[in-house]
Amino acid sequence: MKGTGVSPGIKVGKAFLLSREGPFIPRWRISRGEVDRELARFERAVDHAKKRIIQVKDKISREMGERYADIFGAHLLVLEDISLIEETKQQVREREMNAEYIFVGVLERIAKKLSALDDEYLGGRSVDIRDVGKRVLSNMIGSKRKGLSHIKEEVIIVAHDLSPSDTATMRKETILAFATDVGGKASHTAIMARAIEIPAVVGLRNITEEVGEDDTVIVDGTEGVVIINPDEETLVKYQKKDLELKTYEKEFEDSVPLPAQTRRGHQVKLSANIEILDEIPLVLSHGAAGIGLYRTEFFYINRQKLPTEDEHYEAYKSIVEKMAPYSVTIRTFDIGGDKFISQLQLPEEMSSFRDFRSIRSYLAQPEILKVQLRAILRAAVHGELRVMYPMISRIEELRATKEILDTAKDELRRSGIRFNERIRVGAMIETPSAVMTADILAKEVHFFSIGTNDLVQYSLAADRVDEQRLQPYEPVHPGILRLIKMVIDTAHREKIPVSICGEMASEPAYIPILLGMGLDEFSMSAIAIPEAKRVIRAITMTEAKRIARKCLTMSTAEEVDRYAREKLKKIAPDVRQYYQR
Length: 581
Fold this sequence. Notes:
The protein has helices at about 35-65, 65-80, 80-95, 100-115, 120-140, 165-170, 190-195, 205-210, 230-255, 280-285, 310-325, 360-365, 365-380, 395-415, 430-435, 440, 450-460, 465-470, 480-495, 510-515, 530-535, 540-550, 555-570, and strands at about 5, 10-15, 155-160, 175-180, 200, 215-220, 225-230, 270-275, 290-295, 325-330, 385-390, 425-430, 445-450, 500, 520-525. By secondary structure, it is α/β, with parallel strands linked by helices.
């Protein structure tokens, strides 16, 4: 079964199937005279749940660090949500029914709304809400939360879903790995799994229906694969793969401090793409030389009010300080069009953003962008921080954003607030029009970042459905390669650097092509950096240029892909030996 690998590693063991059933929720009517007593009972249950969450938070902080304890800080925020508590109380008064029944209804409505959104991060928040609900209910109906620490034998947990609280109580000595029907890489459960280094695969849809108690299960968290009741040949294969993977990872550890340079010393910058601050430890442990793309959309989604300037500032300051002395590139928010579906809850002030993407959204409501830019300018005094604008398609849009930036600077200057006057500004090249006018754009920015995911989609005329049908080698379509080469050559003529932050940058077979075309920086998922570094250290620029020239003469994407993979086997034969697609 194929899912999403959220915590790497391979484990083989007996399945321990967690029941999906929750506690029975009683339902009864109360008299008007009993309402106050019922509300007091509910408030006591909420207070007791808060105290227990604080205890868990403190324990996690001591044992694993503050960044993981913050997950339970988010749980506290659920119980401190005045609208949630007040809605429950109001319904108890109006419907004259017991509090636990009303509370479950309110929570479940919110959780289902989040689960239905076409957004991995927000879908993961529904798990947090249900986890908090279980704590309150256990105080009201007396059900005891055992957690998973009571398990004494080595098992692999199979469940519909797991809460962060469940994951936090796992003991590596007995819980070998876990696999779930639902979930995503940005969920708090996934973050906890990586923190305690338990292999995990989520999003398997129906594994709880396919697995029986005590079935033998293989969990490959690296590839995102689960195998049920494997035959002897498959068992031996994965046991060997596990041993090879550990050897491979050990070699990676040795290469992390080594520079990303070719055999003859040509320096290349390898940076990481991130969405949440919790990814920074992973970024640093995998040898990234900076953040090449920090997506900021999650500051805006699922909020009643817009984030304040200080909220932005504190987050950006934190990431810059944690990444010092490396650079951090913040992409201003990219919301609208197909980036987020129209049902997504956004602050009312951003309702018009659903109609168009990124830069056009800014121009519709420049005050929202200005708040973010003020925070970025302020945070830039604490380290090397750059800003880039997504989906630029014409010079007028770029100039309009520069005017907003200048206004933000003027306001800070007049207020006597410290900020970086010389912050470096870049443009993302994601449309054919931006490629064709790159010479004009390059004169007004400090760097380019090519977003190959969108560039492929718009250049090959693929809509959202077609995009899912694109072949994995479409990034090396001859037309796309020529567009990339045009951007790199144009940028270098104007003496500005170019990076790529799309998925293409993390494919080892394509790295020699991009390197040979003159790319200055590769930005990718942190876990892909060790492999990329290995490829770069195994090749010379002469070889890379020869490969790039050859690929630029080819007629089809499939031809380029096949040639690139053949070359990779000769240049770095050990790369991707254990991570085949």
